[in-house]
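Hi team,

Filling in the usual template for the complex we talked about on Friday. All components are listed, including any nucleic acid strands or ligand strings, so the model treats them as one assembly.

SUBMITTER: L.P.
PURPOSE: interface mapping
COMPONENTS: three
RESIDUES: 954
SEQUENCES:
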Amino acid sequence: MLKFIVRRIFWTIPVLLVVIFLTFTMMRQIGGNPFRQSERAVTEATQRNLEAKFHVNDPWYLQYAHYVKGVATFDLGPSLVVRGRDVNDIVATHFPTSIQLGLFAFLFAIVLGVPLGMIAALRHNTWVDYSAMFFSNVFHAVPSFLIATLLIYFVALKAGWFPTSGWTSWEHKVLPSIALGFGPMALFARLVRGTMLETLQQDYVRTAKAKGLRYRRVVGLHVLRNSLIPVVTAAGPLLGFIITGSFVIELIFNIPGIGQQFVDSVFNRDYSVVMGLTVLLSVIVIVANLVVDILYGILDPRTRDVRA
Amino acid sequence: MSVTDAREEALATEPGSAPASGAPIRQTNLWKDAWRRYVRNRAATLAGVVFVVVLLYCLVAPILSPYDPNKINFTIASQTPTLDHPFGTDKFGRDLFTRTALGGRVSILIGFGATLAILLIGVVYGSISGFVGGRLDNGLMRFLDALYGLPYLPFAIITLQIIGRTDMWTMMIALSIASWFTTARIVRGQVLSLKENDYVRAAKAVGARWYRILGRHLLPNTLGVLIIAIFLELPGVILGEAFLSFIGLGISPPDASWGAMAQEGRTVFRSHPTAIIVPSVAIATLVLCANFVADGLRDALDPRTRET
Amino acid sequence: MALLEVNDLRTHFFTREGTVRAVDGVSFSVEKGKTLGIVGESGCGKSVTALSIMGLIPKPPAKIVSGSVLYEGRDLTTLSERQLEDLRGREIAMIFQDPMTSLNPTLTIGTQITETIRRHYDVSQKQADKKAIELLEKVRIPRASERLGDYPHRFSGGMRQRVMIAIALSCDPKLLIADEPTTALDVTVQASVLDLLEDLRAEYDMSMIIITHDMGVVAEAADDIIVMYAGQVVEQASTLDLFDNPEHPYTEALLGALPQLEGANVREGRLTAIPGRPPDLIDPPKACRFGPRCPHAGSDDCTVHEPQLRELRPGHWVRSSHPASERTGTRRPEGAPV
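RESULT (copied from the run log):
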């Protein structure tokens, strides 16, 4: 088991390096000399010092190596546009907000989606099943900005229950999380229902019943264990969706997260921030996938014996 | 077991039933059969009809409409739906019915274009990887794993920045580059499983060249999967474009897509929600239909995955 | 009193295409310490019969519409689900055909054995584990204590079936129902599993029902046999009597279809094939269900009335208008045992 985990962690390193390399290459296509902005008019000497410090004139592979070293030591470089700010600062101030948003949305999706899917499966082919699935389909297809807009319009503006923007008190956090989480919730519900229906047909469920096990245990252990496996695998890409979806939600609800920062930096051509944030997001996605893989290994013992 | 009369057996077998996995499928039988199965699925048929209706609307409405979609007329700005303007007008007084159709043209075109590009890249990558197999396959797949680590929206945004401009074509390119991974995986999986089939071995045994095997045996059987992949990728691409436009990184006016229209509507949202609701609902409708069609196709082309 | 008594059991499946009368009037009994074999081709209703006894038929489409299943005098068809749950595994146990899919791949076999024990007895995990090891040794799995924590995919097919047997025996049931226990196994493994079943049956003094389509298996394992066709019992006798003097044309054909390689009465010529297919159980014929395929059916009673089960000899029942011992000079199927 441990070997399995170690092996998986080991393999993420080259993946990370490749990702950083890709981002790095892409960024180089856009930017030229990062210090050419006229806002940063500096003296010749200072310019040369800066260039030396930031390895601007080194060949690309050295620059890449420096950057990787930076990533490894959690130094993502300075902002190109905002004087005196590091990418790290930006991350430190805004990242926790985005993480909170993402987490709450994820929790909402799971806490509502999984039971919904289970109920739909256990009450298969009844009106409960049909309506649950109909709504899931709809919510999955509707873009999150529409959901956000509708929520704001009806719940915040008309009913006045929740504020429409900001991220300070807990009331602020409800609507955005729901808006972001609706799509994933629908996905979970559909997925759980599908896998449970399939699992319920399996022979080993019949065996479990034949042993006289209580229905609660049959469903709670035998069925659920096997049903959750595909759900866990879906959770990985879902995280990616939540991250990208958060951009829009942060925009609508005026939430100071990294989504906003990213978009602002793109408009401001602050490429080191863009790159730093992209690398950060990539790391998150990769780590999330790693966690998912490990969970998968725990839940399905068959995969442990297969070569990674 | 008793031996049954051959004639009786032939009569008793369900006409056109899917043969054992992987065996060569007689084309005519499969499609006719799949069509019949598809039509039996009411939801999918309805979705297909709505899909076509939307396409027609986008195609025909601007031609027949008496309004100039770009004409600004503040006297009739921000109206709710009336007989004159079935969808109302936006904040510039432009008829939304016509603009939505035009926006649809853009969104759908980008959608299909990007999807085809995804298919192209995915098929090439996947079939090479699957067909050649061995270390090349391993390497290509690991590289793909790394690519999965790149978050979708940032990746697309960066691509757009690299290209510099944002018009329909660059949007297609950006979106497709960011999302071909899954299709490549699927194609590779198909090619791998088909490659081991006996009829491929037979073809090899009589000395068929690799391109013949690929083109004549492997790809036609992948066709079903590809069709389904189209309708699975389409929603993602349409939503992606919508998100990008909504953030402001999309296509420049006046050629607006649905996402851009939604973004415009956002500013007047509190007083006049129609402007943002109309394009959002349009997006949702198309995406919903594509989802149902994809489900229907999947059930029709592979009856074994039927939900009980 | 017989341990199990099934009386006129009818289990129907209510589907969109119609009502499938999978089990349509089946009666038999199982005595204490005896083994009953149920044979018939696929689709004749033997598995559904077994599942009906245990109450394991899928309740939405299926339903026991009439009849009774008396276990030690209690009618199981009237029991609630909770009461049945108490019975299953403890009094009546069942093993299934495919050991690959019948075990949960995500739980260790140890868990799958001990959860049964702890469900029916109030024991600690340690005690249950100990019992589990004993059971594994009993079913002849080597290095039992080490293998308790293994997952099913690490076992071969034959060993998985033994694990299933161990699970079934874990609570000392009085009746074991084995649904095609050897069908999915290699021939050599079949023999060892059958031997194991017989030894354990004797040791635990259980009654057993073996369901199979393989005449060779019942010849070896069963004391009494019932032959099923199209949802009904068509012949019922002791094993010896059935094989020596088959009465129903279907039974004769089944036996005639067995290849024989050696022996005093080696038949030469072709194996008998039974032309035609079993009737559709959605709308079974009102007349004899085997009629269309029977070489002895004439344009008489067979095509009009459904023959009833009657006791031809003591202990030998037949549902046919033309049992072997009543035929005179009629055509015999080619190659049938003389």
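MY TAKE: Chain B touches chain C at residues 1-5, 8, 12 (CB under 8 Å). Residues 16 and 29 of chain B are 6 Å apart (CA to CA).

Thanks, L.
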